[in-house]
Every structure is written in C-alpha cells, then in structure tokens.
Amino acid sequence: MADGDLLTAAFEEHRDHLRGVAYRLLGSVSDAEDAVQDTWLRLTGADTTEVQNLGGWLTTVVARVSLNMLRSRRHRNEEPVGDSWPGSAELSAASGGPATAGASGPEDPEAEAVLADSVGLALLVVLDTLTPAERLAFVLHDMFAMSFAEVGAVLDKTPEAARQLASRARRRVRGAPSPDRAADLARQRAVTTAFLAAARGGDLAALVALLDKDVTLTGDAYSGPSGRPAALHGAEVVSRGAITAAARAVHSQLALIDGNVGVVWAPGGHLQLVLKFTVNPASQITAIDIVGDPENLRQLQIAVLPD
Hints:
Layout: H1 3-26, H2 29-44, H3 54-76, H4 109-127, H5 132-143, H6 148-155, H7 159-175, H8 179-201, H9 204-210, E1 211-219, E2 230-233, H10 235-244, H11 246-250, E3 252-257, E4 260-265, E5 273-279, E6 285-291, H12 294-298, E7 302-304
Parallel strand pairs: 1-6
Antiparallel strand pairs: 1-2, 3-4, 3-7, 4-5, 5-6
Helix pairs in contact: 1-2, 1-3, 2-3, 3-5, 3-6, 5-6, 5-7, 6-7, 8-9, 9-10
C-alpha cells in the first residue's frame, strides 16, 4: 500500500469521530462535513512523521477549524440553515472513538438513540447560547474527555483558563433548559409531527383535533401565490388551508426554529417557507406563523430534524 493509501485509510478510521466532534461544536451537519474535509486537506499538507497519536492530532485540527468557523459565524451574525439532525455517526465519538479514552458513553445503536433523545433538542438550544470558546471547552472536555491542557492548546489558553470556560458553560448547560422546557420541546415535536403527517395525508379530522378552535394562521406577503399577507381563523378553516397545501407538506420537514419546533419547506435545498407554531399545554396549536420573506428567513436559526 502506497503512503497516500495508508494516510487515507488512517483518516477514514477517524472520520466518524471527527464528524461527531465537529457536529457538537457547530450544530450543523453540513458545516461539520466542511470542517472534516478541511481537516483532511490539512493532513495531506502536513508532515506527520513525528505524530504518535494521529487521532488526537486530527481531533485538535478539526476542533481548531470548527472554532474558526464558530467565530466567523458569530462575526457574520448568521447561523446555518437547512441541515440534517445527527445520526449514529455524529454521536459515535461518545462510544469511545479516538481521543476519548476513558470517556463513558453508549456502546450500541439503541444507547446512541437514547443519548440523542435525551440531549438532542435541549442541548442544541443551550449550546447555541454559549460563546465559541465556552462551547469548545465544554464539548471537548465534557463530551469527548479531552484534558484541559489539550483544550487550552486548541484555544491558545492555559489549562486553568480552559477549565474556567468549561465550568461556565457547564453551569449554563445544567441550568437550562429546565425540565419544563425540555418537556415543552417534546410536546412541540409530537404535535408538529402529527400536524405534518395529517397535512400530508389530507386528514381533515386529525388536523382539526390538533388545532385549538380559535387558532389563527398568519402569513407574510411571500407566503402565498397572491403576494399579499394571509390571515385565517378557526380550526376548520386553517385545517382546510393545510390540506390545500398537502403537496407542499410532502416535501416539508420538521425543524428547530429559533429554539422551537416548526416546519420548513426547502425544495431543492433552497429555503422557501418556515412555519412557526405556538402549542399550548393541552398539546393544541393556537397559532401558526408562516414566514417567506427572504430577509426574515435569513435571520432565523434553523436545524432540520427527522420526522
């Protein structure tokens, strides 16, 4: 096997782990893939003959790449739009991938699914509130068992400074969301999933049951073919409107939108519409806000979830 083949094989052994680190740091599958690709390019251009722990070296590189991306994102005041929710590959590092020796984590797909359910929505919401340095310190140390010396090296800070960043992030992660907030997210997801399924199937009765009798639907001038703002009121009227848009619903997806569960329509990967839901404690939808204005869409923080 040629040296290039050996290098490729070695990198592929660590790819899932690197993707997991990058996803937890960036909260975006497409950004994570970009970070992993950048790491590969840096590997091919580096002299690694003296590197004894390639997994640790690659983790440091992908972390630095991700940190730069986080800082750039904050500078632009932008967030990724239209990404997929992580699967088992993105969570693989929790099961003892490279540079995580001694870390506890799931060791089978079922355990990975439990981890995703328990930390998925709630953790993504909280991680997005951290500074890039806090997020990196927390993710690398608390989730991937890197020492504070290693974390500090990535951040160009002392181990004690890295410890303080992780501690500050940990307090915020533990303090929010509250159990009530986590339960609210779960309720939103269940209701929104049912709404999307009923709309796709043209099930009027199911839609009416999901809507508060006084539900309101509002849409901006970009949300419909008329080019004028829309307003509907009442469960029956809103349900019939949803059925009218059944073809669009087939190609829509659940998404986390500014920290709440909603629906996005992005044909061909181009975001066109966002549906934001208000769900009451009785698990009924009391309001639907449809956003189609490109400028307003750019201001939203969105991560697509599986149905």
